[in-house]
Amino acid sequence: MARLDTTPLKVGGRQLTRSLAMTGLLVTLYDQSLWRFLDQGLTALDSGDGRTLLLLADLYNKRKADGTYANLSTARTRRRFASTSRCRPTSRLYDQLGPSFANASPLFGPWSQYSNLQCTYWPVKPKNPNRSTSHQGAPPILLVGGTNDPATPYAEAQAVSRLIEGSILLTRTGNGHTSYDSSPCAHAAEDAYLIDLTLPAAGTVCPS
Q1: pLDDT at 88 over 80
Q2: Residue 27 to residue 23: CA distance in whole angstroms
């Protein structure tokens, strides 16, 4: 990956930069069934072939054959910035994130350090900014967290469960993002809650 910083790989008329390679790598972590493409992509990259990782990055970025992009990423950005007031006010404050991000993940930390920088320069202020709310009196809520979820960490599911009195946290052990289609056990528990408002027992653990 470090070599791509100074020498991006030519792929046809395009280039595989480190940022695109990291995006291609990221895609494969969402589901364990994609790990074979991770292996293929990194093996090819080591031999000077960036086609697989570039293809994966294009799929994630919704790049079309004509070189244009779907607006999904832009829509997500607008939605996120419309509901958060936690943008850092200057780019200098993002500079200071380097050590903590690198400590959390030597590979992904530096790559994602400035991922929210555009929030600082977003021209529209949020209409409904995040704020602390009371969850007292909420109906029973089922939360589901995967222990090795690379996108929404299990620790966050635990934290939300502590905030919502009376909630039940269903733990799905294993790799991958989201749990509904990763575990028949989790699938059944979520169906039971959504259809019949039936909660599993506290401390329930489902295998993948």
Answers
A1: no
A2: 6
